[in-house]
From TrEMBL:
Gene3D superfamilies: Zinc/RING finger domain, C3HC4 (zinc finger) (3.30.40.10). One of its GO terms (molecular function) is zinc ion binding. It is found in: Nucleus. This is RING-type domain-containing protein. InterPro entries: NOSIP, Znf-NOSIP, Znf_RING, Znf_RING/FYVE/PHD.
């Protein structure tokens, strides 16, 4: 009895489902691991271990130098857009003024033609022609409006006379935004945070998990929800925050008073594919055209 070869049949005019899967055709799914998630002690801009960390009211942490450069570049960009908007407004006013002048000139020419319309066409005996080819001084002349229209005539079939759509520069927003949360952010809204380091005998060799909660002494990782106090900047775990800070209204390290609005939950690390605690699976769809040769390369399998 012949062996079944339906999955390995290659004499058809199309790919079977099994052949497409072997060639990497369709949607590829892969679960993201620890290496794909940003650590909690990394800057949201440079993705490196933060230096002099500053936190926004929404819980995004940045290096002091990184966020300063970001806000400064936004200020420069806003200033450039404002200058372009002012220049365009001046150009619009000049164009409107020119249109009014042309309208007045057209009305004067129409009035002049109406008043001299009853006179004979040839007013001189020599029948001389003017530069425009008309007889007599009282003949109809080309108005300034018509000359302007002829000069600015647009033709879609001529590259030199193809009309161009005017580019309108909208008035930009004058407020800087957070590069991570996309909400309004000012420099005075940032506050410095302080992470408690573990003691020398408790530090793990060749590891970056060297920060602990000052209350329960638990090592801080991405799996723990963190809360920072905006008044003093000390960082605690979520459990200690709910148990002590929300009840006593005072920091456990510096004894500085804090209210519930001063407790800011720090955002956990994520990637462009997914968010932490939401969806840790990256998907990518590949459409392999016929004859492209891309289907011959199988996707790398992560071990």
């Amino acid at each position: 009895m012949p062996q079944r070869h339906s999955k390995n049949n290659n004499d058809l005019a199309f790919f079977t489902y099994d052949e497409k899967k072997k060639l990497g055709y369709g949607t590829q799914r892969e679960r993201l691991g620890k290496d794909s998630i940003k650590p909690f002690d990394a800057c949201c801009l440079c993705l490196k271990h933060f230096i002099d960390p500053l936190c926004c009211p929404k819980g995004h942490v940045f290096c002091k130098e990184c966020i300063y450069e970001c806000l400064l570049s936004q200020k420069k960009d806003i200033h450039r857009k404002l200058s372009a908007h002012e220049t365009q407004q001046k150009q619009d006013k000049e164009e409107e003024r020119e249109k009014l002048m042309l309208q007045k000139a057209r009305e004067l020419d129409a009035f002049d033609q109406q008043n001299h319309g009853a006179l004979p066409q040839y007013s001189d005996r020599s029948h001389t022609r003017d530069k425009n080819g008309f007889h007599g001084a009282n003949s109809v002349k080309v108005t300034s409006f018509e000359e302007e229209a002829l000069r600015n005539m647009k033709a879609f079939w001529l590259p030199s006379a193809t009309p161009e759509a005017p580019v309108k520069v909208e008035a930009p927003s004058t407020s800087t935004i957070c590069p991570e949360g996309k909400e309004k952010l000012k420099l005075k809204m940032l506050f410095l945070i302080h992470l408690t380091e573990a003691e020398a005998n408790e530090k793990k060799p060749n590891s970056n998990d060297n920060f602990i909660c000052p209350s329960c002494k638990v090592t801080l990782t991405n799996t723990i929800s963190l809360v920072a106090i905006s008044t003093c900047g000390h960082v605690f775990c979520k459990k200690c925050s709910d148990r002590f800070l929300a009840v006593d209204k005072v920091c456990l390290v510096c004894n500085k008073g804090c209210k519930e609005k001063n407790l800011v939950c720090l955002e956990k690390g994520g990637t462009g594919f997914s968010g932490h605690d939401d969806k840790l699976q990256a998907t990518d769809f590949k459409h392999l055209g016929s004859g492209s040769g891309l289907g011959l390369v199988r996707p790398a399998v992560k071990t």
